[in-house]
Every structure is written in C-alpha cells, then in structure tokens.
Write a structure and sequence with these properties.
The complex is a heterodimer. Chain A is of the alpha/beta class. Chain A contains 15 helices and eight strands. Chain B has three domains: 88 residues, Uridine Diphospho-n-acetylenolpyruvylglucosamine Reductase, domain 2 (2-Layer Sandwich), CATH 3.30.43.10; 125 residues, Uridine Diphospho-n-acetylenolpyruvylglucosamine Reductase, domain 3 (2-Layer Sandwich), CATH 3.30.465; 194 residues, Vanillyl-alcohol Oxidase, Chain A, domain 3 (3-Layer(aba) Sandwich). Classes of the chains: A alpha/beta, B alpha+beta. Bound molecules: flavin-adenine dinucleotide. Flavin-adenine dinucleotide binds next to strand 3, helix 5, strand 10 and helix 11 of chain B.
Amino acid sequence: MKLKFDKNFCEKCTTYDCLTKCQYMRLDVESAKKEIMRLINGEETFILNECVTCYACEEYCKKGNHPFYLITELQESKGILPAPKPIVKQWINMAIPTRKDTQYFPNSREPVISLCLFPEFMRELRGKLFEGVSFILGRHFYCQLAYLHFGKPSVIKERLPKIIENIARHGFKEVVFFHDECYSTFTSYANAYGIEVPFRPVHFFEYLYNKLKALEDKVKPLNVRIAYQRNCSTRLTPDKEQYLDRIFELIGVERTQREYDKEKALCCGGIFRGQQRYDLFVDVQRRNVEDMVKSKAEYCVFNCPYCYYTLAERVYKAGIRPIMLHQLCRLALGETLR
Amino acid sequence: MNKKEVHKALAEIVGEEYVSDSKEDLYIYSRDPGLAEPHEADFVVLPKTVEEVQKIVQLANKERIPVIPAGASLSLSGLTIPYKGGIVIDLRRMDKIIEVNRRSRYVVIEAGVTHGKLKAFLEEQYPDLCHSLPEAPPSATVVGNLMIHGQGHLAQQYGFNSSMVTGLEIVLSSGEICRIGSCALGSYWFSLEPFPIPAGLFLGWFGATGIVTKAGLRLYPKKKLRDVEVFVVEDPNLVPEVIYRVTHTEMAEDITTSAQPYPLMFRDIVMIQIYITGDEEEELEFKRKLIWSSLRDIINSKEGGFMTLAPNMKIAFLERPMSNITRFADVLKGGGFVYCGAIIPIDMFSTALKKLFEIASRNQVTFSHTGRVIGRGHCMMFSFAYPFNREDPESMEKARKAIQESYIATLEIGGIPWKPEPPIQRVLLEKMPRETAELLKRIRSLLDPNGIMNPGNWSV
Ligand SMILES: Cc1cc2nc3c(=O)[nH]c(=O)nc-3n(C[C@H](O)[C@H](O)[C@H](O)COP(=O)(O)OP(=O)(O)OC[C@H]3O[C@@H](n4cnc5c(N)ncnc54)[C@H](O)[C@@H]3O)c2cc1C
C-alpha cells in the first residue's frame, strides 16, 4: 500500500499553505518551502518532531496532496514517536479484538450506523432520528486512524483491510459512520492509499441532515447560539462540512462568529496531552474556550466523542453547555435527553 | 463448665439472640473469603459494650477457651479462623462513632465501626475531614485494619494506618480494661506520645494480645477536589525513580501502582496512579504541573508518559474505595480472590513484578498487581493477587500454590509479608533471630499467659 503523493505539486507550489497556515508551528513562505523540500525528499526536518498531528494541513493543501499522511510515513520510517512508547503501546493494544468482541451482527439491516468504539452512544441514538437503525460496533469495526497521531501508519495499513472485510461481510450498500474519524478513513485515507472500499461510507452529518429534512415539520427552532468544535479528522474530508451549516439552519441555531472556527479551528487538545505537550494542551484549551465565551455561545457542539470527553468539562466550567450534535438535533425535535 | 453451661453464661452476658452455636452461624465464622482451611468455632457472640467484652474474656480465660476477635474477616489470610475452636467475638455491634474533635482532627470509634460508616459519617458531618481509607470493601472495620497494619489512601503522606492511632482502649486476656495514650489521663484522645508507646503491644498482633474496644484515630484535611494522573512505563525498573521524583514534589496525596494482563491496553506496562487534591482548581493545577515537570526528562526520553483517561476510566480510578478491585475478586466467577501483600523497599519493585509474572505463569493463573506507596517512598505494599473460582478445586489449588510462592518470593527479595496467614507467620518467626522471636514470645505470654487470644497467630 503506497501513499499517492505527487512531489510535483509541492515543487510547483507557491504558497505552501500546509505549513504556513499551521497553527502550531510558525513558518513563513521561505522556511516552509525549505522544509517541504526536505519532507518530499525524505530528509530530516524539525517538522517531523514538532508536528502536533492536528491533521489540518490535509485541508490546507488545496491540491489534495496529503502532506500529513506523508509526515506520518516519514515519522515512522525514521522512528520518530510523537508520544512515549508505553502510550503508543497502549493505543495499539487497545484495539486488538478480544473474544468478547462481536465480529458479525447477523440481525443488522440498513440503515446501519457504525459506532466505532463508542458503545455508550447506543443508548443515546434513539428517538425519531434513529428509528429502525441497526448498529455495528466494537474492535472488529474500529477504523484505526488514531495511529496517525502516534507515527504508526503501518498499523492502520496492516489492520484496515480486515476491518473493511468485516464490514463488507454484512453486505451493506451504505454504512453511516457516527465517528468522523471512521468516515475519513474509509474515504480520504483509503483513497490516498488505493484501498478499495466496497460500500458507500456515509457521514453522520449527511444522515442527520436527511433525517431532519424529512422531519422538518416537527422541528422546533432552538434559537440558541452555538460554538462548534471541529475534530481533527474533519480536516481529511472538509467537503461534508457543508451539511453541518445546513443542519444548524434547519434546527434554528446560530453558529457564532469566532476566531477558532472553520479553517482556523483549534484541536480539542486531547491528543496534545497524549503526546505529553501539557502546556500546549492547557494553552489551546484556554484560548479555544475563551474564544467561545467571547462569541457569546450558549452551547458548544461536538461531533467527536473524544473531543467531548476532552473539552466538555472546561467548556462547562466556563458557563457554556457542552452537547453532542445528535443531542442538539434531538432537542430540536422536542425530545428529552437522558 | 460444659458447652451448655458456657452457652448459658454467654447468653447471660450478651443476651440470648447475640450468642449462637448453630451450624449455620458457625459455618460463616469458621472461614474467611480467602483460601485458608476452615475450622469450626464453638460459639459466636456479638457484644455491644466493653463490659460485655470484658465478661466474655474473663469467662474464656477462666475456662481456658480460645477467643477470636473478628471484624468483617476480610483480611483474606485466615486471621479470624478459630484454629483451636472457641468463641468468635464478632465486634460489629459495637459500631458507635463516639466523638470527633474537629480542631484536633481525631475521631474516637468503637471496634466495630466500618470504613464505610466512618467515611459516610465524615462526608456528611465533617466534609473537610477524612480518614485513610483502604481499598477494602466498605464493610471492613477500621480497627481490624489497624490490627493488621493496613494502609489507606493517605499512606503516602502519613504512613501505615496504625501509625495514625491516637489512643486505644483494650480488654486484656485477664479481662482488665486498659487505656493507652492521652485518653489514659483525661478525656482527650489526641495522642499516644509522649508516653512510652505500649500500643505496639497490640497493633499488628492480630488480636493475639488483647481486644481493642475503642480507638482514637487521626483525621486529615479533605480537599474539595480530587484528580488522578496515570503515568505509564514499559520498563518496571523505572518505577522506583518515578516514585522517588513524585514523592519529592510532595504534591501527591496517594500513589498507587498497578499491572495486569487484561484488558489488553494494560498488558506489559506498569501504571502509576498519582492522586492530587486541592480546594481550588488552581491548587490542583499547580500540583499537576509540578508532578508533570518532575517527570519531564523521562517523558522526553519516550520511556514514560501520562495516559489520557476516558471518563469511565477516570471515574473508576477516582472511586473510593475502588470497586474494580473487589470486582477483580470475581473475575473468574465463583468469587474467590487472595493476595499476598508484600511490604517491600521501593527499589525492589521490578524484582517483585518479575517474580509475580514467573509465579503466575508457572502456576497458570491469572493475576493482578496493585501497590501503594507508604510514606515518601519509604516502602510500599506490593500485592501479588490471584482470583480463583470457589467451585473449581483445581483453580483453588493453583491460587493456593501461587500465594504460597508469593510469600516465599517476598522473603527472598527482602520484603515482609503483610498480614501473613499463620503458617507464614511461623516461617517469619523461624527466620528471625532467635532472640527476637523469643522477645515476641515473652510479650505474648505476658499478655496472654493462658494462650487463649486468637491462638495460632504469632505463636512461637
Ligand atoms: C478487595 C479487598 C481490598 C483490600 N484492600 C485493602 C487496602 O487497600 N488496604 C488495607 O489495609 N487492607 C485491604 N484489604 C484487607 C482488609 O479487608 C482490610 O484491611 C480490612 O480493613 C480489615 O478489616 P476487617 O474488619 O476485615 O478485619 P478482620 O479480618 O476481621 O480482622 C483482622 C485481624 O484483626 C483482628 N481483630 C479484628 N478486630 C479486632 C479488635 N477489635 N481487637 C483486636 N483484634 C482485632 C482479627 O482477629 C484479625 O486477626 C482489602 C481486602 C479486600 C477483600
């Protein structure tokens, strides 16, 4: 499995957005050019050590040339670990299926939602939006993309075909991915490595939007101001972000104007902590939450459970109510949350 | 006196409903949840007052009947099993929390007060005070814990729980009632010192020298906020250094260790749980920062790092006591679990862990290790823990072998088995210099000339 990466794009590039737009490393066009050349030639560069693995450069590169995937490849080939060895080991071991993990869900029917490693949401995806859905979940369906944060793309490449096979065995035409990371794996990552995916990955936003649209007459606009917290993998598949604003419009919420949104969104910080960049973790969370407060947001909306777990407490302490996107949608349908 | 007459005499002391020699009742008191062989008691009594305890002991001493003081019998090493029959004195009806002196931070309790009761009481009435809580089930008694030199969540800051005792009331084998500490002179129970400290004649003796009926115990500031950081390493040789650095900061409340094969994310690593407390977020953050920076170069070397805890994990780590530890007891179903708590110098951590792996693999048993730092790294409790299925004799036999080997391993590495079962107590007595064992024997015969107090324990 080889990364589709075209050196020519970088050689001809004039803006080097992938690095100049980076929010965690400061590079001007000149130095960005120098470092890019080092990257594409597989040479040593501080980028490999300093990269916080926020994934954003994948979005900044308008040529779709996968600068981030290249970084992770180089990190691995040079033995650069973004996190301590035992932490990486824990993450790698965590996803090894055990006897308790279900490999096949015989009764599942489309529409099917893959819940990744978040069984706790099975109790939450209820109500009108989720009538008649089936779930698949667990380690046999875990997308493995998180290893990009740990300089271990080989683990993804080794395990992903089996995961795809596990899903494909069910014969689904479409699979809705609750976790953005899964969706981005089966689209962006699979594409970049020429991995075939025999079903159509559907993003949870698209699913929610279509469902809400069908239930439009039951929607009561919420009339609240929300700050949105993007998660890292959304950078791999920015196209589907359009659904988000359509959802917000449908349910009558106002996405506040703030500095750290959209392209300039800040990471939830969770991965920085895992990489032991504690000061950065604290600083990024502080800036992000202060920005939400400044924008007068009443809710902070998350799409990734991991971001929620990382940031919700801090958001809450700042007087903003943390909420998952599907919960917000359910509120708009007049449903009560657990 | 024949058995019937003893029964009658006991009934006169405690009331008919609080004495029993029925098979069903004796079944429970003839064993504990560990692996020691059961032995049947002749009677079980549940006194309510110190005077009743006094009379029971006087009767037993006169009739040369063994008495076995018991709390919840959760020590798991057969310490309340009536090896020579006799009267089990279940102290759990004596469950009054007598007094809290808030300003002097101590509590006076009766012998049967459980950790659960004391914790709940303090949380409700004195939310800024706490006692050092072990991970034992809440039904375990505080005094039972003192009698075995237990350790709780404040061990790293203040040492063994028995060193937090401020006063004792004891019924001697003669039936005399004795008070030790400031309570011997007046109504305050604030300190054992500056007397010569005879409390050592009772604490750690498993009830073989007297029955404690009341204890004064230090309480400590309880901060409003509590959090945990979990540092993980692959190389167990790093653990002593990590503990050394963290204890040097004096920022941690509790420091515990764990290693276990399941779930897989815990395999082949050692976790060091570092608990921090504070009344304000800033205090917590300040402590956290100092702890992180104390380990910075280990982090930079990529040999260790702090875990990011999922919320459910964090909840489990922050629970007091941690119910996961009790849950481990039932991991093989059939509810059996034993552990050898080794008190070891922290330097011996990796040797102890290696022994644990060897023992578990030799005996084909699953295992878990939890440990707790005692004092500022002065020593630690290192547990070799094995679950077993009570319905499966083979699994019990394997666990029995593993636990015996763990005791031996503890001695080999220069540690001291904590709350050892009687056969291991004998090994210890044999291993120590003759003069030391002789001293213990003399103390014991002085305090219990007729050998009626929990016989089988600390017997030379
Ligand atoms: C899952 C689990 C976790 C545990 N974790 C911990 C831990 O973290 N720290 C820890 O220290 N312990 C721990 N323990 C061990 C034990 O349960 C506790 O120490 C407990 O507090 C002992 O109290 P008990 O009432 O069970 O004592 P018992 O077992 O009833 O008694 C202990 C000994 O003291 C004697 N005794 C009891 N009361 C008196 C008295 N009034 N006067 C004289 N002698 C008396 C008994 O004869 C016996 O020899 C754990 C046990 C389990 C099962």
